[in-house]
Amino acid sequence: WNDGTDFDYTAFKATWQALNGKNKDYSVPSTEGYDCIKSVEQGSTPKQVIVTYEKPCATWEMLFAPLVHPKAGDVKTFNQGWVNNPHNEWGAGPFQIESATENQVVFTRNPKWWGKKAKLDKVVVKRMEDTAALNAFQNGEIDAVTDTISSKDAIKSARSVKGAQLRYGYSTKVRVLNFNAKSKPLNELAVRKAVVQAFDVATYNKIQFQGMNWKSEQPGSELLSMFQAGYKNNLPADGKYNTENAKKTLEAAGYKMGKDGYYAKNGKTLEISFTFFGDDSTQAALANAFQAMMKKAGIKCKTVNHAVAKFSEVVASHEYQVLPLAWQSTSPLSFLSAASQVYKSDSDSNLGLVGNKKIDAMLNKIGKTYDYKEQTDYANKAESAALALYGTLPVSAPPIYQVFKKGFANNGPAGYASTYPEDMGWQK
């Protein structure tokens, strides 16, 4: 570690203790895999780690990356110790943090790094609204835009810069809509189902990818990519787009159409909200399209726009009803842990806030076999049951577009391949 502490069994033990779920005070995205471990102890030397499992764990190869510094392993430090205070001494790697604000982090080459020397002396990472990022690239203020090339206007703007390279390919993301089942009226299963039935996903995706030379059919899974072995369409059959069926679903739940063209029950108009972030024109168009789709089905919908910087705050506080976002898969085996993260009833990443013990039990089976086909079969069965609760809906499998100044090397879309920050640099 940067503070001189050896990498040894203590880091593995601190990581396990924070992530195994036994102490509920730790704020963790998932305990998957770590909850299978009985003990983490020193072997014949501190550099040998013995991990003993008390039950089968299919995700064992994905654990202990990254590691927790043993001095940062207590609850208070783990949860809050890094807020506005990025501790270089608890890190390790080719770069260290020189400064950090809400919208910018400056990394400089780490003199204490014992691995391969970074090619760059300094890397500045900025968080910017979509339009501002592209303007900054056009003006030569930044050298790459890696996260906001998601519309035809953005691609056109990027291509207009002399010497720019647009790099694109399949992403490992799936874009979804989440429906907050703790928020009225979406706390009613019938309302969530009607919203999905009223949602014209083909039109939505046509707007989303217009001018991008990309056509995405609706994926049937949030866990497995459509190009991946074991993929299955797990969407509920009765959730297909059909405005008349959406109306029938609402009427069966006691809603009646009012003179204003919207359904109501017990004197209260059926109204939901669609939350989106940033100033990208495509995102605004998608929000407006969703609003129009709901209106056709007699569901009143307002759109709520926040700055990108507010994303984490809004999600953590569940101050949304319909929430679009994307899940990123980092490995072909990500589904082994992602299944519980996305669908388990007590998971912080279950943004639909809906689940049950039966689905939890189905999810637990995934990690109890080492056979890939059995793993995907269990994952598909659990996801099929979860999607029938209409807490979330897979919408599209987007491409990834990134733009770089010519000569910027060893960075860009790479699928499931690992890329290393120390290799980034300028071609000679």
Q: Overview of this structure, please?
A:
The two termini are 32 Å apart. The protein is α+β, with helices and mostly antiparallel strands and 428 residues long. Helix 5 runs antiparallel to helix 7, helix 10 packs antiparallel against helix 11 (357-366) and helix 11 (357-366) packs antiparallel against helix 12. Helices cover 28% and strands 21% of the residues. It is built from twelve helices and 18 strands. The chain folds into three domains: 9-86, no CATH class; 95-169, 3-Layer(aba) Sandwich (D-Maltodextrin-Binding Protein, domain 2); 173-396, Dipeptide-binding Protein, Domain 3 (Dipeptide-binding Protein, domain 3, Roll), CATH 3.10.105. Strands 3-4-5 form a three-stranded antiparallel beta sheet, with no helix packed on it. Strands 6-16-7 form a three-stranded antiparallel beta sheet, with helices on one face. Strands 14-8-15 form a three-stranded antiparallel beta sheet, with no helix packed on it.
